[in-house]
Known about the structure:
Layout: H1 8-13, H2 29-35, H3 39-49, H4 54-57, E1 63-68, H5 80-99, E2 102-107, H6 113-123, E3 129-132, H7 139-150, E4 155-157, H8 158-178, E5 187-190, H9 194-206, E6 213-217, E7 220-221, H10 231-239, H11 249-253, E8 258-261, H12 269-272, E9 279-283, H13 293-296, E10 300-305, H14 320-330, H15 337-350, H16 369-383
Parallel strand pairs: 1-2, 1-3, 3-4, 5-6, 5-8, 8-9, 9-10
Antiparallel strand pairs: 6-7
Helix pairs in contact: 5-14, 6-7, 8-9, 8-15, 14-16, 15-16
Amino acid sequence: MSFDPHEPVFTMHLGGKLVVNCAVPLSTRDDLSLAYTPGVARVCEAIAADESLVHEYTWVKHTVAVVTDGSAVLGLGNIGPRAALPVMEGKGALFKQFANVDAVPICLDTQDPEEIIATVKALAPSFGGINLEDIAAPRCFEIERRLDEALDIPVFHDDQHGTAIVVLAALRNAGALLDRKLERLRVVISGAGAAGVAVTKMLVAGGVEAESIIVVDSRGALHNGRADLTPSKRELAELTNGGGVSGGIADALRGADVLIGVSGGTIDEDALAGMEPGGAIFALANPTPEVHPTIAARYAAVVATGRSDFPNQINNVLAFPGVFRGALDAGATRVTEGMKIAAADAIASVVANELRREAFVPSPLDPRVAPAVAAAVAEAAVRDGVIRS
């Protein structure tokens, strides 16, 4: 690509987007003696005697690590850890701006799952949570699962669960607009990667009938008759597609009420013609949606994308800052399904009394969102019994 350092985007990124500031005064000798030696030794001794005090007397309670291996960055693919760093810095900026959570970008120069797991485990004492980011499927599933089992702090792969939370919130409000109940919707999910897997499971947990969902990958609908499925796709095939539909996206969309695109591919307009009239299309590939919104509007009553220049942006920033803020405030040791559903309900509720077809998803800049999500997630953590004793 061409590079012009005078472009506004490069000007904004000059020197990076994050800094570290001191939170205590360091103006006098007494300040120094308390913040550092000799006073700091007293705090070290107290934590050594009771490690739970690290959450009160260090930055752990308000700080997360944003960890990537650079293998699946935006729509750019496997661009490596250094090229991924601007995205991780951006994530940190959003954490701070929307939920006052401090985030440290950590870009690992390895794509080996065992090395990633070992490194994050070794780093974990410095953080109150781990936000996994832009790690390619299927490795991301095992990495998250094993870290979640090994650590006593929340581990959250945002490409999976952040997307899924906001999709469920959007579908709740779309269903209200269309006067359709979630349990009666027929849903097609285009894409069986990290986001597709998580969206499917989240919709089922949120009330959509599993048998009424069809997941489609690049080779067609997932069903039990296919012999080419990875373990994660096999799990989806066993959970969904009760009618055993085979074929491509056009076959899957016949009679469907909802299309959710998380594939990065393109869906022909002809395939949309088979959808049930008056439904919903969420075309979330970024920067190029699977279906352009003007085309989607011909076949659906409500339309959402992943872009900020169209109405109803399904953006992960609606979820992850509040999810971590709530988990950290509650002292949660993990993020449960109940906490994710609570986050989705909170996002939906922010605009539930002001729904319009052009605005059934809150703006990412809406200041009501993160506090609502944080409060709901914290309550759910207590309810689910995952708070630190």
